[in-house]
Every structure is written in structure tokens, then in C-alpha cells.
Amino acid sequence: MKNVGYLLFVLLFGCGSDSSTEQARLFSTQAALGEALYFDKALSANRTQSCATCHSPEHAFIDPRLNASGKVSAVSQGDDGFSFGDRNSPTAAYARFNPEFKLSQHARINSQQPDYKGFIGGQFFDGRASSLKTQAAGPPLNPVEMGMADKFSVVQRIMDNEDYLLAFKSLFGDSIFDNTEAAYDAMADSIASFEKTDEFSPFDSKYDRSLRGEYQYDPLSKASRGKALFFSQQFTNCATCHQLHSNGHKQETFTSYEYHNIGIPKNLMARALNGKAEDFTDEGLLENEEVTQLTERGKFKVPTLRNIAVTGPYMHNGVFNELKTVIHFYDHFLSGSIHSLNPETGTAWREAEVNDTVNFTELEDGNHLDEADVEAMLCFLRTLTDARYEHLIVENGINCGE
């Protein structure tokens, strides 16, 4: 009977000693295959870098590597060991909710400003990838990222792995490797499928738990006061760009996916790393080949505020190290603001990289904050941190009393 039972097990599930069959079974879905590809350094030229290198699941899907000063680097180093990008690696968390890149007119949910007309959505800070699948196809071929020569080279690396061979054929058909474009497309599609799983967007922060009745903000706490400030157009303009749904929506992503120039200065330290001249200008949305209007120059996509307390450095170029600095920066545009100096440098805020399209209308809307207000805002923003990353929050002198 024992032998019959074993034989039945083998017939149903395959021989346990055949590692390829066992592994192929683990890749029975595109998402499972995509997870393996997401972590696979073999898809970079020198086999040193994977998607997870710049979007680490243990660090809220950002690049956690440190610079020479011991801080998280503003820009990421490539697989070649010496190239650096010019923009900060954005979190991949909640990216599946980005709408496809398009021109749009939509009503703002909580704003004193009129409805928005302009581009929205897409992946990357300039929306140049319309979908997660398109985005996933980019880094392996980017010379300052994973550095592979071409799609054929990437597909060859995939074919070198017997487990991938079996899984690709099972999921996409026996002839999938007859066409390089199709095989590369299947790779990108699989990674995108993994990025659409709940691991990337669990909606389990204190804010989310409060909506489900599993957590309650102390009405006298700093976080509760910060929440009131955040959502009240009478006091701040945060919700104009960082609220997509009506209050209490269970899948609020804290971004409108709009594009704005908010006056961010150049990150000269990043330019020193990547070798771009100080007079180089990042054109922002104008770098997207679908955009030709000069009025879009210097605009960048509004990022999600989810996990914002643990995903520094901040802004599209990582120019600010601390979240408190970001709030001071926004506040300095408001009449009566006491935040005329960058707290990280002790000097006046530097001029915008692109001056002519700065969105002063939104930036100058709202009331200025005192330090107690800033602290309250920080405490609320910390409650947007996914449960698995709450241990990464560093107090930095801010005691939220929770």
C-alpha cells in the first residue's frame, strides 16, 4: 500500500527529486514567474542588479543603498558599478493604480482650485511608460541601470535557466522563444503581474486600519491634528494634489496623478555623481516623447504619499533628505511663512531648475504652518506607512506620542 500511495503521489505531483519540475510548478502563474524575474540579477549585464535592487521589498520598494555620507543615495548606481541616474528611484508600491498616461480633465475632490486639465498617469516621473508592463521592459536595457545590450541578450539569459524555459513554455506556449520580441514582452508582462499583487499594495497602514475600525486616531494626538490639517482646504493645500477620492475611500492612493512644476531646485550632488554638467536641465514631462508643449516643461508626476515617511530622499531628484524639509519647502511659498531657509543647508531655498512653468497658483494656496503644525503633519504622514514598514520610521526628534 505504501508503494501504491507513493506511486499515486508521483503521478499526481511529479517526482520530488526533479528540481526543474518542482520549480516549474512554483511558476504556475505569471505573478509567480514575475516574482522570480523581479529578483533575478542574471538579467543585468554583470549579474549584479535586479529590479529589487532599486525597488527593494524590504524597504518600501525604493533603493536603500547608501551614499558616501551614510544616507540613502538620491540617485541609483547602475550595474556597471560607476553610472548613476539623474532621478530618484520612485517606490514601486501602489504603482499598479497609476492610470495610463493621457490628457485628462477631471474634477478635484478636495480643493479650492478649479478642475485639472492636463496630462495624468503613466509610470516614471514623466509618464513615459504608459503601463506597468511597459515600465518593466525598460530597466534591463537602460545603460545606466541593468545595462543589457538588447532584448535578444536578455532572452538568452532567461533561456539559460531551465526553470524559466519550462515556465515560459507552460504559460505562453511552446513557441514563445521563437520570437525574441514575444519572449521579452512575456518577461515584462510577468514582472508587471507580480507588481499588481497585494504585496505591493496591502492597504494596511494605520490610516487604512482606521477606516476598517481596527485602529482609532486619538482625537487629541498630533497625528489626528495633522490629519485634519491635511484634509482641510481651509488650512492647507495638500489635498489639491494628494487626494484622489472622497474622504474615507478604502483605496486612497494619496496622489491625483497630475503633473506640476513645484519649483524643485537642481540636485547638484547628484549631478556630481552622474557627471551631468551643472547647466544641464531635466525637462521633466517634456522628456516624454508624447509631449511637445513647452508649457509642460519641468513638470513631474505627483507621487503617492503612501510610505512617504520611509521612502526618502524626496522629490523627483532626491534633493531633500528629510520629510520635514519637504513640508518647510512647500510652506515657504506661503505668505507669512517662517520657513525661509532650507533646514538641511541653513541657506535660502535655491531657485527652481525650470523657472518659467512653476505652479504658483497651487503653491500659494493655503495658510502657512508653524512648527507645531509641521510636526502634526509629519505624525499624520507616518500613519500612511504599511504595517510591514512601520519599524523603519525614524523619529528624528519628532515624538508623535503613539
What does this structure look like?
The protein is mainly α. The chain has two domains: 25-90 and 132-195, Orthogonal Bundle (Cytochrome Bc1 Complex, Chain D, domain 2); 99-129 and 201-392, Cytochrome Bc1 Complex, Chain D, domain 2 (Orthogonal Bundle), CATH 1.10.760.10. It is 32% helix and 4% strand. The chain has 15 helices and six strands. Strands 1-2 form a two-stranded antiparallel ribbon. Helix 3 (30-38) packs across helix 8 and helix 10 crosses helix 15. The termini are far apart. The model is unreliable at 1-24 (pLDDT under 50).
What structural keywords apply?
402 residues; mainly alpha; Cytochrome Bc1 Complex, Chain D, domain 2; two-stranded antiparallel ribbon; 15 helices; 32% helix; disordered N terminus
Whole-number mean pLDDT = 93
- Assembly classification: single chain
Which CATH architecture of the largest domain? Answer: Orthogonal Bundle
Radius of gyration: 23 Å
CATH topology of the largest domain: Cytochrome Bc1 Complex, Chain D, domain 2
List the helices and strands and how they pair.
Layout: H1 2-13, H2 19-26, H3 30-38, H4 51-54, E1 102-106, E2 116-120, H5 132-136, H6 151-159, H7 162-172, H8 180-195, H9 206-211, H10 222-231, H11 238-242, E3 259-260, H12 268-274, E4 300-301, H13 323-331, E5 341-342, E6 347-348, H14 360-363, H15 371-382
Antiparallel strand pairs: 1-2, 3-4, 5-6
Helix pairs in contact: 2-7, 3-8, 6-8, 10-15, 13-15
